[in-house]
Amino acid sequence: MLEIIAQKREILGKRLETLLDQGLVPAEIYGQGFENIHLSVPIKEFSKVFKEAGENSIVNVVIEGKTVPVLIYNVQKNPLNDSFISIDFYKVNMDKKITADIPIKFIGEAPAVKEKGGTLVKALEKIEVEALPSDLPQFIEIDLSSLVDLHQSLHIKDIKISDKIEILDELESVIVTIAEQMKEEVVEAPPVTEGAEPIEGQPQEGGQEASTTTPEQEK
């Protein structure tokens, strides 16, 4: 199991920027019946663990020699440089089932897209499940190679998953479908009827505009 060494911290509020300058990121660890602890975590160490674990794998946080199993519950990043600025860890009971949103990972290629010009439409990005913390997958794989026809879909009920994991979302929900590409309509200009009355202000034959002045107005 992945492990992170963390230290308790006393620095709070605006002074947290000094931690970032030292290569540390502020973190919180909390959970049901668990007292909230303020932590600091080495940024480089956390980056490696987060890349492998994501938000659904159990990670051991070691604090002063004590190991606490957690999920990486929430991560905030600097929008300018994508660096970590804060982390929330959720302490889990390894003997109690929890719910989690598991991201979908699409693999393979849909023949209906390559051979029939269809468009792949992804309807879901995550699926809610319930399982023991140790049984939670990092992601759920969806193989697109079975999509061979236009208008064909894959539903949640089509997922092959461990019997240790219970899917909570509606089983008939569409995960991905193959849509037919929309054809552009060509709008043709209406034909000009010979001998039609000239439109007011439109040039007549010979290049002159049709006159809208009455003989009385010309006097």
Notes on the structure:
The chain is mostly beta strands. The protein folds into 2 domains: 2-92, Ribosomal Protein L25, Chain P (Beta Barrel); 99-179, RNA Polymerase Alpha Subunit, Chain A, domain 2, CATH 2.170.120.20. It is built from 4 helices and 13 strands. The strands form 3 sheets. Strands 1-3-2-6-5-4 form a 6-stranded mixed beta barrel. β2 and β3 form a beta hairpin. Mean pLDDT is 86; it is low at 214-219.
Topology:
Layout: E1 2-8, H1 17-21, E2 24-31, E3 34-42, H2 43-53, E4 59-63, E5 66-77, E6 84-91, E7 98-107, H3 111-116, E8 119-122, E9 126-131, E10 140-143, E11 153-155, E12 166-167, E13 174-179, H4 215-218
Parallel strand pairs: 1-4, 2-6, 7-10
Antiparallel strand pairs: 1-3, 2-3, 4-5, 5-6, 7-9, 8-13, 9-12, 11-13
